[in-house]
Structure formats: structure tokens, C-alpha cells
Amino acid sequence: MTVLTTSVPERSLLLYHPFVRVAVAGISFAALMAAPSFLPAYFVEIGFKLLLYIVLAEAWNLLAGYCGLVSLGSSSFFGLGAYLTVGLLNHTDSGIGLALAASALVAMALALVMSRGLFRLRGLYFTVGTLALAEALRLLVVNVPWFGGASGLFVSADLPEIAELFRDAALLLVVTSLVMTLATGSRFSVLLRAVRDDEDAASQVGVRAFRVKLAALMVASALIAIAGGLQAIKLGAIEPYGSFGLQWSVDPLAIVIIGGLGMRFGAIVGAIFFVAVGELLAEYPELHVAITGVILIILIRCAPRGLCGLLETALRRAGLTKVASS
Amino acid sequence: MPGLDVIVNALISGLLLGGMLALTALGLSIILGVMRLVNLAHGEFLVAGAYAGLFLLQRTGIDPLVGLLLIGLILALIGYPIYRFLLAPLAGKGSEAAMMTMFGLSIILQNLFVLLFSADTRAIERDYATVPLTLGPISVPQIYAIGFAISVALIMAVHVLIARSRFGSELRASADQPLAAAIIGINVSRVHALTFCLGTACAGIGGTLIGVALSFTPTSGATYLLTDFAVIVLGGLGNVLGTLVGGIVLGVLQSVGGLTLGDGYRDLVGLVLFLAMLQLRPQGFLGSRA
């Protein structure tokens, strides 16, 4: 995307001490795991949705924010994960964990197969290519008889409780966070940003742009597919317009732009905001989407680095160090 | 295997529908070619044109085909403020910012349509949409032939405008080298504004024709957006006559796909063709001249 250079944060603050970070992460994880035991069912539902959206948004942020691959094809991998997971649950006795893992592997394989074609497309054409891929997969699923056509499939295996799904989603978020920490705090992050900012220049100095993009795409696809599988198990039924719905491509994009593209906490902040607005306007779904559109347009125009960017500027003005980005 | 007359009929109606598809894609194509903008709200402009035709007929009784130019004008008047207030301020901020803005606009419009006009499937009902035009064994709805003729005429008009007029040469200069064009005194921003209005006007007219020939819903835009991408990729980006070729090729192939594989596969054929074409020959059948 356009200029998004994130500077190296000042590490003087106690918050950035590795031990403090691990401790904070550990406590948050424990709290997440314990949450469904005492939260009311309504909040567990919302929490599950929030966790799923954070994972999707992180994956999208990895692609668009850190690697410059603006994708409108998240729904292809989301739907793939949903259909594979349900298929495996119905026809084998693999259990949820194995089914989700297999979905992730197949999504990575699809990313690998499609990469040759997709990466020939640069910039805007890549975006349109991913959109077409998602639509093609959806039409394929609608028309090929194995997949239950337009009416979809039911999960015949026993469905787990929402509390258990919440914990699964929390685990997925932990994995996602680890991946994102690795991808944004290691040597690989430099490669990613080099490819994002100027692919040709990066190739000139010896960065294998294709492999860097492929790695990002495969990781993101696997995460999105697992999220799709979890959502399918939660619903207990899948159909092509839901699982391959454009919303699964659109929502992560909206969340990341609202939160802050290429910002480490962009996905989390954006997802909380997005889910909160969605719940407030739950009675008026059309209005909700339209308002999301208005917020998108305003933020792109006035605050290209999203809510996190605004927060960072505000904190710096107040004389504090950069807390919002890392 | 269906009989020969069925096949010929399907091919002819594919050809005629393809001409109309080309008109729907024209706006997307010139906006992309001149402004380097992937107008993700293009489908919503088509649907807006279809609603405009529908309400024109219901409220005033003006036949949508008579009112086509009026509809084009309305859509151009809608397009101008969108360019002026949403796109112009983003000039120089990279192409993604403008694309995302149009995307935001597309979800706003889509949901506004649902809120204002309900999610019902609509069609603009005219006699010529159902009465067949029969010529020997061939029989297609009259609107297919009328729509094809109007589409080809409009595409030719736009081609002449771009190839011959002064505005056209300024447009081509702005598309090739915006900076150089600005240096020699072309008002690139004005060219972009006019291009955008021309694009939305074409989209509106195409949408009305589609609204008469087929049917539409508030969310039809997304499907047409992809179909139109397929058309312009087949025809070559920003190539006006190529758009016509691309539309006809896609229309015929969709008919063939529907005939051999089943009706549900029509759109899939278009998308697969689109993805394959992007891989093999991104500059389109006719090469890359605008």
C-alpha cells in the first residue's frame, strides 16, 4: 500500500521488556480460556465472533499491511475451510482438531497452486484476480452436486458447546499472534516490507519477492481456512452464499482499515470497534454495512493509518512514547 | 445433444446479450484506462441506472428506451460530485486509496438500495422485452436486438469521441502520461472528471438495458462488476472497440457454457475465462492500444 513506514519503537518503556510481554500474553491467554466459564452465553457468542474477526483481520493485515497484497479473496479460503471441515467431520471420524488442521493444509496447497497465476498480477489486478477466484469457487460449489448445491450441507457429527468453540478460537488467536509476532518482528518482516514498498527494487537487491509473497499468502490462507472451519462448526450448517459470501472478504478489509493498516494492533482495535458497531446496530443490518462504508471512506481520507494511527499521534502529542505501534 | 436450431438460437442470443454486456463494461473500462482507477462501485452504478429506468417509467410513463439519454445525464450528474468530493482529494495518494473509497461507496449504495427500494427482484416490464423477434428458425426477445443495436451505436460513438475529438486527444494524453499532459497545459483533473461522468453515464444506460432485458436486485452489481472485468480483460484494458469484442466473445461463450454444462455454469465460464486470460494474455485479444 502507500507509505506506511513504521519506525522502530523506542524500547525504553517497561511495556516492551520481553519478560513483561510474555507475562501480559500469558495472563491474557489464561483470562481468555477462563472467560466462557463465567461470562453469560450472549457474551461468549460475541466473544467468539470477535476472536474470529481478529484472526481474519490479522491474516488480511499480514497480506495487505505488511506485504502489499490487497486481497478481496479471503472468502475463497474461508469457504474452503468451512466445506472441508464439514466434509471431514461428516465422512471420517477425524475429530475437530484434525479436520481443521487438514483444512489449513489444503488451503495452503490451494494458495500454492494459485500463486503462480495470482502473483503475475500486480497491485490492482491482483485484487481483482482474488475477487474472481472467490466468485469462481462459490459458483463451482453451487453447481457441482457433491457439495449440496445452493442449499448446502449439515454437520452430522455432534456439535461442541459454544464455550469449547470459544476456547478453540482463543487458541487459534494465540497461534495467529505468534505468527504475526514472528512475521513483524523478525528478519522476515524486513523482507515483507521491502516487497510491499517496492517489489522491483527488492528483487534487484536479491530478495526473492515471489517466495516472500507466497509465504505470506500461505500462512494467511491457512489461518483463514481454520477460521472458516470453526465458523462452520458453530453454525452446524453451511451453504455457498454464506461460506463463500463476499462479507468474509470485505469485513477483514474494513476492520484493518478502521484499526490501522500495517499497524501491529490494527486488527484487534478495528475488530473490537467493528463488532461493537455491529451489535449496536444488530436490528438494522443494512444500515450497519452502510455506516461501515461511510466510516471507511472518512478514515481513508482523513486518517489513512486508522484508529491506531490516530491514537499514536495523540499519544505522541501528549508527550508519551509510541505505545500504539510496535 | 440439443437440436441445431436450439444451438443457433443460443449463439445468437449470446451474441446479442454480449453486445449489451460490452456497454455495461464500457464505463469500467474507460475509467480504468484513463484514471487508473478500479471502480469497485461500477456495479452499483449499473443498478442505479436500472432503478432510474424503472422509476422513470413508473412515475412519468416515459419509456426507458426513450429516456436513455436522460438516464445517462442523471447518472453523470450523480458521478460528478462523487469524483469531485471523494476521488479528487485522493489524487496522488496511490491507487489503492481511491479503490477502497469506491469500495466503501459500493457497500453504501448497495445497502441504500435495499433500504429504499427493498430487496425484491425487479424488472422493467415492456412489451418488447417478452415479444419475440422471429426470423426463420431463430427467435429472440426483441429487446435483445434493440439493446444490441443501441449498445453498438453508443460504443461506436464513444470510440469516435475518444479517437477524433479534441477532448479525446486530451483524454488519451492524460491516460498515457498524466504529468506530461499537465505540463503542456491539459487540465488533467477536468479530463478525469469528464471521464468519470462519461463512465457513470454509460453504466447507467447499460444498466437500464439490462434491467429491461433481464432482471436485477439491489445486489446484482457485484456479479456485473466481475462479468465486466472479464469483458475488459478479454478486450484489452482501456480499449473501447476491444470492449465490444470482449463482450460479444464472453456472451457467446457464456451461452455455449450454459448449453453444454447447464445454466448454472454460465457465470462460471466467464470467470474461468477471465482468470485464464489474466494469466495468458493480460493485454487482451487486440493488443494494448487505447
User: Which band does the percent of strand residues of chain A land in?
Assistant: under 5%
Share of helical residues of chain A: over 70%
Strand order of the largest sheet of chain A: 1-2
Average of the residue pLDDT scores of chain B:
87
Radius of gyration of chain A using CA atoms only: 20 Å
Measured between the Cα atoms of the first and last residue of chain A, the distance is 19 Å
Q: What share of the residues of chain B lie within helices?
A: over 70%
Question: What share of the residues of chain B does DSSP label as strand, in percent?
Answer: under 5%
Can you write the helix and strand succession of chain B as a string?
Answer: HHHHHEEHHHHHHH
The counted number of beta strands of chain B is: 2
- Strand adjacency order, main sheet of chain B: 1-2
- SSE sequence of chain A, one letter per element: HHHHHEHHHHEHHHHH
Mean pLDDT over the full residue set of chain A: 84
How large is the radius of gyration of chain B? 19 Å
Principal-axes geometry of chain B comes out as globular
Question: How far from one another are the termini of chain B?
Answer: 41 Å
Largest sheet of chain A, described in full? Answer: 2 strands, antiparallel
Count of helical regions of chain A: 14
Gross geometry of chain A? globular
What does this protein look like?
The complex is a heterodimer of chains A (326) and B (290). Chain A is mostly helical and 326 residues long. Chain A is built from 14 helices and 2 strands, in the order αααααβααααβααααα. The radius of gyration of chain A is 20 Å and the shape is globular. Chain B is mainly alpha-helical and 290 residues long. Helices cover 75% and strands 3% of the residues of chain B. In chain B, α2 crosses α9, α7 crosses α9 and α11 crosses α12. The model of chain B has no long low-confidence stretch (mean pLDDT 87). Chains A and B meet through α5, α11 and α13 of A and α4, α10 and α12 of B.
